[in-house]
Automatic annotation (TrEMBL):
Residue runs in coiled coils: 17-44
ZnF bounds (C3H1-type): 367-395, 429-456
Region (Disordered): 277-322
Compositionally biased spans, kind Polar residues: 277-304, 313-322
Name of the featured protein: C3H1-type domain-containing protein
Limits of the C3H1-type domain: 367-395, 429-456
InterPro entries: DUF7923 (IPR057683), Znf-CCCH_tandem (IPR057654), Znf_CCCH (IPR000571)
Organism: Penicillium argentinense
GO MF entry, a single one: zinc ion binding
Length: 465
């Protein structure tokens, strides 16, 4: 083999070495790139691991917070009962029992509502009941008297007192006079509780009229909130609510509320003209099928000449309601007795001689609690004798009769200062106000009208009847 062959072979080996070195360099470069990528992936993985761990810790904290918030939201659950007292009226037996009836009505309402929630809304566990009933107490008391439901408007005040004292969160609110005051208060109260997480259900009770229909239609615009509201039906809903009642849950409590309207059994003729003698009591003819006789012998005793027997006469006025009777004194006795008189001041305003400051406060409160029938003891006859819930059997002393007459004077007479009935037992001026002062310590909550305050008690005129 010559040298040329060896030289050729040498050159071939040199080329192979170069290719080997190039391959090694490329492999080393690739390894370097992979090492860098690996380090980057490692850093990313560590970062994601830390991030996931932080997220998990944060999620655990959030879940704990949600659990705490849910526990707070579920704490002290309550339902709200908002009623317009004009449309939702308690049953007769509760109203007639005065303070005791108010206590029983509050307890029965709580029991019935809990029973309803257990059956229809089982997710609400042992809630508190917040009840607000908005009512013009004076107008409602007069309506109950005119309907023959009670003989004394003070019975309704006693009922309200008993209702408010029984349950911590239940109350009947006297809204005073004014149109749509109950609706306005219900609207404002609803807004407070509608978005309250502790309030699990709102019960609305209202009469059937266009104002409440518009109110309920406005609520329907918030579609996700209608499930939080139920309508309470006492008297069957009339056509005004037909369009909206199908969108609400309807709740009925017939064991608590009346299912029929409260209708007067005598016409308020005094709105048009004042008769010469006031109607002492509504006729019981429609309420009781066999009314007790309205006359007694002259052995009945009373105060201030109110012991004469009673007789029922029907007014001759053709405009008078056929369902109404006047209860007046028997004229046979009047013929042998001196004429009765109504004492008035120089303004012609009636003045009742009764010094309330001289009456012991303890005795006054004691007799109030006895629930005595004013008609029976002061007039000698109760027109609701067989169905009256007040006491007729107690024997009263002369002093107790005097105090009872003062208690009766605390109830405003519907004829006010113009009353001409000398035997009227009700009040014609506020007993708490002083002459010249146009208010008393009760302020706006006084049952007497503003004009019945500050009356001049100097008697200058006597009207004989």
């Amino acid at each position: 083999m010559d040298s040329t062959s060896f030289l050729e072979r040498y050159r071939q080996l040199g080329t192979i070495d170069q290719q080997k070195n190039q391959l090694i360099e490329e492999l080393l470069q690739r390894v370097t790139e992979l090492e860098n990528s690996f380090q980057q992936e490692k850093l990313d993985h560590e970062r994601e691991t830390r991030f996931n761990r932080d997220i998990q810790l944060h999620e655990m904290e959030l879940m704990q917070q949600i659990h705490q918030i849910k526990s707070i939201m579920d704490r002290e659950p309550f339902v709200v009962l908002l009623l317009d007292g004009e449309g939702i009226i308690f049953k007769d037996e509760y109203l007639q029992q005065g303070e005791e009836g108010g206590c029983n009505a509050a307890k029965q309402l709580y029991t019935s509502l809990n029973k309803y929630l257990t059956t229809n809304l089982p997710n609400i566990k042992v809630p508190k009941l917040l009840t607000k009933i908005y009512l013009n107490v004076r107008t409602f008391s007069e309506l109950c008297t005119r309907a023959g439901l009670v003989s004394d408007p003070s019975t309704i005040h006693d009922f309200i007192r008993g209702f408010n004292e029984t349950m911590s969160f239940s109350e009947i609110v006297d809204i005073g006079s004014g149109q749509n005051k109950a609706l306005d208060k219900m609207k404002e109260t609803l807004q407070i509780f509608l978005y309250n997480c502790h309030c699990h259900q709102i019960f609305l009770g209202c009469p059937s009229n266009s104002e409440y229909t518009n109110f309920l239609e406005d609520i329907l615009k918030e579609g996700d909130l209608t499930g939080r509201i139920s309508l309470v039906e006492g008297v069957t809903f009339e056509k005004e609510l037909e369009t909206v009642k199908t969108s609400y849950r309807i709740a009925k409590f017939p064991e608590v509320f009346r299912t029929s309207k409260l209708t007067p059994i005598w016409a308020p003729a005094w709105k048009n003209t004042l008769p010469t003698r006031s109607m002492l009591t509504p006729s019981p003819s429609r309420q009781f099928s066999n009314p007790p006789p309205l006359s007694r012998t002259s052995t009945n005793t009373s105060v201030s000449g109110a012991g004469a027997p009673l007789a029922t006469i029907t007014p001759n006025d053709d405009t008078a309601s056929p369902d109404f009777q006047q209860v007046v004194r028997s004229r046979t006795v009047a013929s042998t007795s001196p004429p009765k008189a109504v004492e008035r001041n120089k303004y012609g305003q009636r003045v009742d001689r009764l010094d309330f400051k001289s009456i012991p406060r303890d005795e006054l409160n004691r007799l109030k609690k006895l629930k005595l029938c004013n008609y029976h003891f002061l007039l000698g006859e109760c027109p609701n004798e067989e169905n009256c819930y007040h006491d007729h059997d107690r024997k009263l002393t002369r002093q107790e009769l005097h105090i009872l007459s003062a208690i009766a004077r605390m109830t405003p007479c519907r004829f006010g200062l113009e009353c001409d009935d000398p035997e009227c037992i009700y009040g014609h001026r506020c007993p708490q106000s002083e002459p010249g002062k146009k208010t008393c310590f009760r302020g706006d909550s006084c049952r007497f009208d503003p004009v019945a305050h500050g009356i001049d008690t100097n008697i200058v005129k006597v009207t004989k009847v």
